[in-house]
Write a structure and sequence with these properties.
single chain; 134 residues; alpha+beta; Tetrahydropterin Synthase, Chain A; four-stranded antiparallel sheet; binds zinc ion
C-alpha cells in the first residue's frame, strides 16, 4: 500500500549551461508529491499507517518553509554541487532527503517516489531505484 502527501513551496531558480529564457532567474510554485510504501499488515488500531499530520511534519524537514526555499535550492544545487537547479536535480535532492528521513521513522515508511511539478502541466518523477544512494 502507498500513502502520499503533497507539499507546495515557492522558489526561484535559473538553469545553468542553458541557452534559453530559463537561464534567467524566475520563480515557480512547486508541488512535490511524496509517496511512501507502507505495510498493509502494520496498520494501527485506528486503521492508519502513518498520521498525515505527522507525515506533513516530516516532509517539512525535507522541503524548507517558503522563506528558506530559494536559498535552499540555489545553495544546495548550484553552490554546493555545481549542479543546475533543474526540476530533475531538485527532485533528486528531495528523493535523497526523503530516503534519509524515512529511515529515521523506524521502518514504518519506505520511500517510493517523489513527483515534482514545476507547473500544472510539467513534472518529473524520481523513484527509489533512480537514486544512486551511497
Ligand atoms: Zn523554471
Amino acid at each position: 500500500m502507498r500513502v502520499s502527501k503533497e507539499i507546495d513551496f515557492g522558489a526561484a531558480h535559473k538553469l545553468l549551461n542553458y541557452a534559453g529564457k530559463c537561464s534567467n532567474l524566475h520563480g515557480h510554485t512547486w508541488t512535490a508529491i511524496f509517496t511512501f510504501e507502507v505495510d498493509v499488515n502494520s496498520l494501527d488500531q485506528s486503521g492508519i499507517s502513518v498520521d498525515f499530520s505527522q507525515l506533513k511534519k516530516i516532509l517539512e524537514e525535507i522541503v524548507p518553509d517558503h522563506a528558506d526555499a530559494n536559498m535552499w535550492i540555489l545553495s544546495h544545487l548550484a553552490s554546493c554541487y555545481g549542479e543546475s537547479p533543474s526540476a530533475e536535480n531538485i527532485a533528486l535532492v528531495l528523493a535523497r532527503r526523503a530516503i534519509d528521513i524515512a529511515l529515521t521513522v523506524g521502518g514504518a515508511l519506505a520511500f517510493y517516489s517523489v513527483r515534482l511539478y514545476e507547473s500544472k502541466t510539467s513534472f518529473v518523477e524520481v523513484f527509489f531505484e533512480d537514486v544512486k544512494y551511497n
